[in-house]
Automatic annotation (TrEMBL), chain A:
Its main location: membrane. Residues 96-312 form the ABC transmembrane type-1 domain. The chain crosses the membrane at residues 9-30, 102-123, 135-152, 190-208, 243-268, 291-319. This is ABC transporter permease. GO terms for cellular component: plasma membrane. GO terms for biological process: transmembrane transport. Belongs to the binding-protein-dependent transport system permease family. The keyword Repressor does not apply. CDD domains: TM_PBP2. It is found in: Cell membrane. It is a multi-pass membrane protein. Keywords: Cell membrane, Membrane, Transmembrane, Transmembrane helix, Transport. SUPFAM superfamilies: MetI-like.
From TrEMBL, chain B:
The chain crosses the membrane at residues 39-61, 105-126, 138-155, 161-181, 220-245, 268-287. GO terms for cellular component: plasma membrane. This is Oligopeptide transport system permease protein OppC. It comes from the Bacteria. It holds the Pfam family BPD_transp_1. The lineage of its organism: Bacteria, Bacillati, Actinomycetota, Actinomycetes, Streptosporangiales.
UniProtKB/TrEMBL annotation, chain C:
This is ABC transporter ATP-binding protein. Residues 331-357 are annotated as: Disordered. Pfam families: ABC_tran (PF00005), oligo_HPY (PF08352). SUPFAM superfamilies: P-loop containing nucleoside triphosphate hydrolases. PANTHER family: DIPEPTIDE TRANSPORT ATP-BINDING PROTEIN DPPD, OLIGOPEPTIDE TRANSPORT ATP-BINDING PROTEIN APPD. The keyword RNA-binding does not apply. Keywords: ATP-binding, Cell membrane, Membrane, Nucleotide-binding, Transport. It comes from Nonomuraea longispora. It comes from the Bacteria. GO terms for cellular component: plasma membrane. One of its GO terms (molecular function) is ATP binding. Belongs to the ABC transporter superfamily. Residues 8-257 form the ABC transporter domain.
């Protein structure tokens, strides 16, 4: 099992390298990163431009530039950013923390909701409550993330106006200045998290609750659940101990894999709520043709995908004795 | 009697109904099951209505999406059912036009990604071995490419014409389809009738196009349908970030994005195009659900 | 044997399922009595309603099923009893063994846990006591090193061993009735005898009555006291095991016997006599005997009137056939065409295939 996982991870390394190469070419093709500098009024001196070009290795041919970058990464150097005051390594690390905080809480919330709703839906298949939950799940599946986020933001503003106090924050991941001690800090952070978390969580909830429902139905129709009932166990025990416990195995894997996707997918939520996370970092970097910054983003995401694949496999082994004993 | 295969006893008379049930064509069965799915049928009607409204209504409506009227920033009225924006555009006409574009883009994406993904997945799953490994690694590579970066680069390079936006998204989405199709083909190729066909000397191409793809059609159709809904959302998200359809053309995502700052002052600009996106994506998702049930009714079967 | 009290009385049981294509009438009036310590074999093809009958007895049919008639356990009616009450009987006084041991155990719990769970569902004992009982039961089922094996998961057992675990679970609470639904069908021929022996051990140890459902007359021959033959949701013949084997009074039973390869009584080398055609759809049954279309003996009356099971000359032997009296002393090859027969002959014998318009 573990050797299989490790082999899969090794195979993914060349894929990631190829991916960085393709993305590098794309961003390079996108245009001149110094266009902004050159377009300034009054125009900067040729020396200034030459210095910038040298700093960004723009005086080298593209292939050599890529080589410079990848050998640098091996040494822990992520290369120069177009933005002179930004160290890509530090910036990505800080952004990663912000995004992770958002995604982790959202995933937890979505998972709990999805499991509860999926189980109720499956147990009461084709009842009114099942149809209601199904509609809600499809509604969130069909909601454009930015529209929903803006909607929530509007709701937050109305709520604040109604209460005459800033209860939930609609902009940023934290206030610039917070007065008071650790509690005030924590309350401030939490207040900023409420809306983005809900926005991100409900979108995942749609797909996950459907998945949990299907997985639960599968198990509920299995022979061993019938046999558990034939033993005379209570309905509750059959549903929780036999059906839910087994139906959670595929759900866990899906959640772990989607976790990684969400880290790269929080772009919209971060943009709407103006969080300085990885998503916003990517948008800015792409807009500035900051090739090395985009590549750093790609690496972080790739590593996250690998790590969560590993976590998914380990969880699977932990939960399913059939895998554990292989 | 020249056919010796007829030697097997004929189905007896009372078994006729059973035989008739079995003989009813797969397509008819799927259609019957789909028609029983009320939400799916309602959604199909709704979707067709919205599409008709967008394509035919756009031409018939008294304003063109590009018309600039004297009414500026008007709330909804009989004259302008969805109101007007700050330049005097009729929002209803714009929403119709945006719907048209968004649906066109989504359908084109689903068609292209479905076609490429099906062929890719079928060949990969059928040949297995090194061919499969290489093809799937390429699909993996495509899945790692950030849509945002790719779209940003390519859209800028081409001024964001709608079909190019579709092309870019399809270029990344086919990999999902190929994975699904490969999975189905991997299990199908072990079936006896494929073995039999191969033993009879059928060529690989024949087996793939005559046996594997037709038998994988159920999951393919379901996945491509859901891809249409996903494509609508991806396109609108890209347009929202300014990386999709570019003005003066418009799409639902672009309309919402332009209205983002006006949401508290002129909410109609924001709510109407957004609601259209939700209705379209929602109805397609329900259609997909109905198709899934129709193609694979195992979850509905009562145990006996 | 016949003096003993009836533990389970099934009377005119009917079960139907509403489906997309209409009402499937899976069971159409089954009646039998099961006496203490007795083994009743229920035989029939898949779809004959034999499994549905036992699921109805267990109260395990889906909510959509429409159930009629009566099932009495020690005189107490079970049909329509709320699930909460049924639960106290299920696994306690009526236990069940399912067909496929590969799927009837939960993959994520140890076999010891799963047996102990059945014990604790019906007895107020500690977890340790239940475990101890599980180990005892595994030992009784001849699982080697039961104490260690109790800590293993189902996937670490072979099919035959898993079925013995299932049987151990079924007998955990000394039930009065054990229903075994095709307990050997999913297993290799080599372990079938082993599992049948385990079932007999379980039955003897608990003095339970047993319903042994199978499509294999060979299995029933060695294990059952009485046999009920089912076809298209109806009992078509009921009698002592010898009556059924030596003086069958229903062409279908005769056909089943004729399809059974026999190596025992010197009939080696005889041709098999298969039954032509397939069972009818339960969706819309024609009037008349459901077996008529496949029956070489059919007459006009068979197409119009469905025969009721009636007593034959042997005591306790019922058969549902208009011509059961004519079958006295007939052997399968007297009624059915042997499989070696020329197809052309066969077609000529079969009027359904003969008269082309």
């Amino acid at each position: 099992m573990l050797t299989y996982t490790l082999r899969r991870l090794l195979v993914s390394i060349p894929v990631i390298v190829a991916s960085t190469f393709v993305v590098f070419l794309l961003v390079t093709m996108a245009g001149d990163p110094l266009a902004g500098l050159k377009g300034r009024n009054p125009p900067p001196s040729p020396q200034v431009i030459a210095v910038e070009e040298q700093r960004l290795h723009l005086d080298e041919p593209p292939l050599q530039r890529y080589w410079t970058w990848i050998t640098g990464v091996a040494r822990g150097d992520f290369g120069p950013s177009v933005r002179t005051n930004v160290d890509i390594g530090h910036e990505v690390a800080a952004r990663f923390g912000v995004t992770l905080r958002l995604v982790a809480v959202a995933v937890l919330l979505a998972l709990v909701l999805a499991v509860v709703v999926g189980v109720i839906s499956a147990v009461k298949q084709y009842s009114g409550i099942d149809y209601g939950f199904t509609f809600a799940a499809f509604l969130f599946l069909s909601m454009p993330s930015f529209w929903f986020a803006v909607l929530l933001k509007q709701g937050g503003i109305s709520l604040n106006n109604l209460l005459g106090d800033q209860v939930v924050y609609t902009i940023g991941d934290r206030s610039v200045i917070v007065e008071g001690g650790a509690w005030a800090q924590l309350a401030d952070t939490a207040g900023h998290m409420v809306l983005p978390t809900i926005s991100l969580a409900l979108l995942s909830f749609g797909a996950w609750s459907r998945f949990q429902r299907a997985s639960m139905l599968d198990v509920l129709n299995s022979d061993y659940v019938l046999f558990a009932r034939a033993k005379g166990l209570s309905r509750r025990r059959v549903i929780v101990r036999h059906a839910l416990r087994t139906a959670l195995i595929p759900m866990t894997t899906v959640t772990a894999l989607d976790f990684a996707t969400l880290i790269s997918g929080a772009v919209i939520t971060e943009t709407v709520f103006q969080w300085r996370g990885l998503g916003e970092f990517l948008v800015t970097s792409v807009n500035q043709r900051d090739a090395y910054a985009v590549l750093a983003w790609l690496l972080v995401i790739a590593v996250a995908v690998i790590v969560f694949n590993l976590i998914a496999d380990l969880l699977y082994a932990l939960l399913d004795p059939r895998i554990r004993h292989e | 009697m020249s056919e010796h295969t007829e030697a097997a006893p004929r189905p007896p008379s009372s078994a006729q109904p059973a035989a008739a049930v079995r003989r009813r064509s797969q397509g008819e069965l799927v259609l019957r099951r789909f028609l029983r799915h009320k939400a799916a049928v309602t959604s199909l009607v709704l979707f067709v209505a919205v599409v008709l409204l967008a394509f035919a209504g756009g031409a018939l409506w008294r304003y063109d999406y590009a018309d600039i009227t004297s009414a500026v920033s008007q709330p909804p009225s009989l004259e302008h059912p969805f109101g007007t924006d700050n330049l005097g555009h009729d929002t209803f006409a714009q929403v119709l036009r945006g719907t048209q574009r968004s649906v066109e883009i989504a359908l084109l994406i689903a068609f292209l990604a479905g076609l490429v993904g099906t062929l890719w997945g079928a060949f990969s799953g059928y040949y297995r071995g090194i061919t499969d490994s290489v093809m799937m690694r390429i699909a993996d590579l495509v899945l790692t490419l950030p849509l945002l970066a790719v779209a940003a680069v390519l859209t800028r390079a081409t001024n964001g014409s709608w079909w190019f936006v579709a092309l870019v998204i399809a270029a990344l989405q086919w990999a999902y389809v190929s994975r699904v199709v490969r999975g189905v083909v991997l299990s199908l190729r072990e079936k006896e009738y494929i073995e039999a066909s191969r033993a009879l000397g059928a060529t690989d191409r024949w087996i793939i196009f005559r046996h594997l793809i037709p038998n994988a059609l159920g999951p393919i159709i379901v996945n491509v349908t859901i891809l249409v809904a996903a494509a609508i959302l991806v396109e609108t998200a890209l347009s929202f970030l300014g990386l999709g359809v570019q003005p003066p053309d418009t799409s639902l995502g672009l309309l919402v994005s332009e209205a983002d700052t006006a949401v508290s002052t002129r909410p109609w600009l924001f709510y109407f195009p957004g609601a259209f996106i939700v209705v379209i994506a929602l109805s397609i998702n329900f259609i997909g659900d109905g198709l899934r049930d129709a193609f694979d009714p195992t979850q509905r079967k009562a145990r006996s | 044997m016949s003096e003993r009290e009836a533990v389970l009385q099934v009377e005119n049981l009917t079960v139907s399922f509403p489906t997309e294509d209409g009402l499937v009438r899976a069971v159409r009036g089954v009646s039998y009595e099961l006496r203490r310590g007795e083994v009743l074999g229920i035989v029939g093809e898949s779809g004959s309603g034999k499994s549905v009958t036992s699921m109805a007895v267990m109260g395990l049919l889906p909510a959509s099923a429409r159930i009629g008639g009566s099932v009495r356990f020690h005189g107490q009616e079970l049909i329509g009893v709320p699930d909460k009450r049924m639960r106290t009987l299920r696994g306690g006084r009526i236990a069940m063994v399912f067909q496929d041991p590969m799927t009837s155990l939960n993959p994520v719990y140890t076999v010891g846990d799963q047996i102990a769970e059945a014990v604790r569902a019906h007895n107020d004992v500690s977890a340790a006591q239940a475990r101890e009982r599980a180990v005892e039961l595994l030992a009784l089922m001849q699982i080697p090193r039961p104490r260690e094996r109790a800590r293993d998961y189902p996937h670490q057992f072979s099919g035959g061993m898993r079925q013995r675990v299932v049987i151990a679970t079924a007998m955990a609470n000394s039930p009065d009735v054990i229903i075994a639904d095709e307990p050997t069908t999913a297993l290799d021929v080599t372990v079938q005898a082993q599992v049948l022996r385990a079932l007999e051990t379980a039955r003897a140890a608990t003095d339970a009555a047993m319903v042994l459902i199978t499509h294999d007359l060979g299995v029933v021959a060695g294990a059952a006291d009485r046999v009920l033959v089912m076809y298209a949701g109806r009992p078509v013949e009921l009698g002592g095991v010898d009556d059924i084997y030596y003086t069958p009074r229903m062409p279908y039973t005769l056909g089943l016997l004729g399809s059974l390869p026999r190596l025992d009584d010197g009939r080696r080398g005889e041709r098999l006599t298969p039954i032509a055609g397939s069972p009818p759809s339960l969706l819309d049954l024609p009037p008349g005997c459901p077996f008529a279309p496949r029956c070489p003996m059919r007459q006009e009356v068979c197409e119009t009137a469905e025969p009721e099971p009636v007593a034959t000359s042997e005591p306790g032997h019922l058969a549902a056939c208009h011509f059961s009296a004519d079958l006295d002393g007939k052997r399968p090859e007297d009624v059915f065409v042997t499989s070696s027969g020329d197809p052309a002959d066969h077609a000529a014998d079969d009027p359904a295939a003969g008269g082309a318009p």
